[in-house]
Design goal:
The chain is an alpha+beta fold. The chain has helices at about 1-20, 25-30, 40, 185-195, 235-255, 265-290, 300-365, 370-410, 420-450, and strands at about 55-70, 75-85, 100-105, 115, 120, 130-135, 140-145, 150, 160-170, 180-185, 205-220, 220-235. It has 3 domains: about 20-235, Neurotransmitter-gated ion-channel ligand-binding domain (Acetylcholine Binding Protein, Chain: A); about 240-325 and about 435-450, Neurotransmitter-gated ion-channel transmembrane domain (Methane Monooxygenase Hydroxylase, Chain G, domain 1, Up-down Bundle), CATH 1.20.58; about 340-415. The protein is built from 9 helices and 12 strands. Strands 1, 2, 3, 5, 6, 7, 8 and 10 form an 8-stranded mixed sheet that branches. β6 (about 130-135) and β7 form a beta hairpin.
Length: about 450
């Protein structure tokens, strides 16, 4: 009986002891991890100071929130994982009912003092308040970061450009002898994971996430950094529809304006309107592109050259219109001289006819009989009617001449003068030059954008 009672007591003791240690608090009590104990967060967690702390870093891209060319700012949203070893923490899971890891507040333990060199704004995203502690002393910290960083961008091929933005991560005070910074995933794995978990890309298409390591020496101390390079390609459809195509349409309209008659004022007004529309698009482009760039953006060259060609076309239209107007003025002066000569000749003929009629009437004697006077009177009346008809014919001729002059002024007469011929030649040569120049320029700019 006593032996049986002793066995029962042992079993109850084992059950009680197993129930006592099967909690996370027992692990914390065993490790002496409390908020009041600051020993675990004061210094680097190594038993021998010559042992460097191995820190593994893993970054996965969740989303590309913004890429601002004007301020050259890159804003990604990433998931960062830090893994390091704390040599002061360990326990045997068999003594604690198989507990292999616990979660504790992150401010209890020491954390690597990593920072991002390109960071220009404090992260305001919600922070993870806890970290994972494994039984073998492996500490894992996971958090989401909204990184607002500066990025040197090359907008030479905007909007068909590809940008590469770096995030350089390193320690502020620990050199290589004290802390080693290693990537947890290689470039291909990080790229694959990023593509799988990518939530949004917006205007940009994510291409690759490459990881490289760089070491540098300052004051005989070597430092180690990890560089994460995000490669992105812009989706150009929006800019092509809203910017490039409208400018190309305006250029087509300017080419079509060569088929408008030069003597009309509508052609000149039309070209000025198209030129003003291009100016508005240039103002919009100024708001998109950064103020400073190593190379002139191709889209700026595209707009400036088209603007210059349309301005040259406007100047050519002004010259042609001036020549046509000058030719019309010369022809009108010649017509005025001819009219004046005809008018003087007509007045002289009319005066001669009136004098002839008066002399005929005066020659008739008052002593003649009435039947002899009647034929003379009829002759006088006929001559008077003939003079009035002649005046009406002169008025009709004047109207015809005026109509011809008006047609000459509006449509440049049949053969045209020397100024009209010069204008036609200039218009023909400039049109050929314009078409050839536009074709060559568009071919070159297309080739440059696609290389």
């Amino acid at each position: 009986m006593m032996h049986l009672a002793f066995l029962i007591l042992i079993v109850l003791t084992d059950v009680a002891s197993s129930q006592k240690v099967c909690s996370y608090q027992d692990v914390l009590d065993y490790l002496n991890l409390t908020t009041d104990n600051s020993v675990f967060k004061l210094t680097r967690p190594v038993l021998d100071y010559t042992h460097p702390t191995i820190v593994q870093l893993d970054i996965i891209l969740y989303a590309i929130l913004a890429v601002i060319e004007k301020t050259q700012t890159f804003i990604p949203f990433v998931w960062a994982t830090l893994i390091w070893n704390n040599e002061r923490i360990s326990w045997d899971p068999a003594h604690f009912c198989g507990i292999t890891h616990i979660t504790i507040p992150r401010e209890i333990l020491w954390k690597p003092d990593l920072f991002i060199y390109e960071m220009i704004q404090t992260d305001d995203s919600p922070q993870n308040a806890y970290i994972y502690v494994s039984y073998d002393g492996i500490i894992t910290s996971e958090e989401d970061l909204k990184i607002v960083s500066t990025c040197k961008m090359d907008v030479h091929k905007f909007p068909f450009d590809t940008q590469k933005c770096n995030i350089t991560i390193g320690s502020a005070i620990h050199c290589v002898n004290e802390m080693r910074l290693l990537p947890f995933s290689n470039s291909s794995r990080a790229t694959q994971f990023s593509r799988e978990v990518m939530k949004t890309q917006g205007e940009w298409e994510f291409l690759q996430l490459s990881i490289s390591k760089v070491n540098f020496t300052i004051e005989n101390r070597q430092w180690e950094n990890l560089i994460y390079t995000f490669t992105m390609k812009r989706r150009p459809l929006l800019h092509v529809i809203n910017f490039l195509l409208p400018i190309l349409f305006f250029l087509t309209l300017d080419l079509a304006s060569f088929f408008i008659a030069d003597h009309r004022g509508e052609k000149l007004g039309f070209k000025v309107t198209v030129l003003l529309a291009i100016s508005v698009l240039l103002l919009i482009l100024n708001d998109i592109l950064p103020s400073m760039s190593n190379k002139t953006p191709l889209i700026a060259t595209y707009c400036i050259v088209i603007f210059a060609l349309m301005l040259l076309s406007l100047l050519e239209t002004i010259l042609v219109t001036y020549l046509i107007e000058k030719d019309s003025q010369v022809k009108l002066k010649v017509k005025d001289k001819k009219k004046k000569v005809k008018r003087d000749n007509s007045d002289a003929d009319l005066r001669r006819q009136r004098q002839t009629c008066c002399s005929c009437i005066c020659k008739v004697s008052s002593e003649e009989k009435q039947h002899e006077l009647l034929p003379a009177v009829e002759e006088v009346n006929n001559s008077v009617h003939t003079g009035e008809s002649h005046v009406l014919l002169l008025i009709l001729e004047e109207l015809k001449e005026l109509k011809k002059a008006l047609n000459l002024h509006l449509c440049g007469s049949g053969e045209g003068g020397k100024y009209v011929q010069w204008a036609a030649r200039i218009n023909r040569v400039f049109f050929i030059f314009y078409v050839v120049t536009v074709s060559l320029f568009l071919t070159l700019i297309y080739t440059e954008w696609n290389t």
